[in-house]
Amino acid sequence: MKKLALLLFAFTFTSLLAEAQISAGVNMFSSNTFVTIGSNPDKPLFGEGRISTGSDIDLELMGGYNLVQKEDVNFYLGMALGVWDNRRDHDFYVGIPFGLLVKPFGGSKNLGLVLEAAPIFPSDYSSYFRAGFGFKYTFR
Fold first, then answer.
1. CA distances (Å), 115 to each of 25, 26, 106, in order?
2. DSSP for the chain, written as a single string
3. In this predicted structure, what is the pLDDT of residue 51?
4. What residues does 137 pair with on adjacent strands?
5. pLDDT 10s digits, 70-129
6. pTM (two decimals)
7. Is-contact 100 17, C-beta < 8 A?
8. How far apart are CA 57 and CA 79, in angstroms?
9. More confident residue, 26 or 89
C-alpha cells in the first residue's frame, strides 16, 4: 500500500513539474498541515499534490476548477483523493474542497493566501469537515 501511494505521489509530482508554471505552499487545516506542490492555480483547471507534515502521513491529490477567476482572487471547487497511514492501518478518503485564492499583496501576484474548506468522506470512519488557511507561491 505504501508503495502504491508513493508511486501515485511521484507520478503526480512529476506531471505537475512538466507544466511551465508550478506553485508551492503550506496549508494549515483543522485536521493537519500539508505541504503542497501544484500546477498554476490561475489556469481554469489545476492540480495539486499534498503531503501532511504531522505525526501521521497523509498523501492527497487534488484537482480543482476555478469557478470565478479575477486578477486578485479565484474561487475554486475540486475533488480530492487521499490516503493516510496512522501506524495501525491505511484508510482512503474522498474530499470536496472549495476555497479562495486571494492575492492581496499588491506588487506580487505570485504570492497568495488560500482559504479552503472541505467535507471529507473516509472509507472506514465517520465523515468530518475540515477548514483552514495557507500560503501559496506560484513560480512564473
1. 12, 11, 18
2. -HHHHHHHHHHHHHHHHTSSSEEEEEEEESS-EEEEEEE-TTSSEEEEEEEE-SSSEEEEEEEEEEEEE-SSEEEEEEEEEEEEE-SS-EEEEEE--EEEEE---TT-SSEEEEEEEEEEEESSS--EEEEEEEEEEEE-
3. 92
4. 24, 111
5. 888 999 999 999 988 766 666 889 999 999 999 987 767 889 999 999 999 988 778 899
6. 0.80
7. no
8. 20
9. 26
Q: What is the number of alpha carbons within 13 Å of residue 126 lying toward its C-beta? A: 1
Report the distance separating Cα 10 and Cα 74, nearest Å.
27
Compute the distance between CA of residue 4 and CA of residue 19 in angstroms, rounded to an integer. 24
Q: Which of 42, 3, 35, 37 is nearest to 18 (CA)?
A: 37
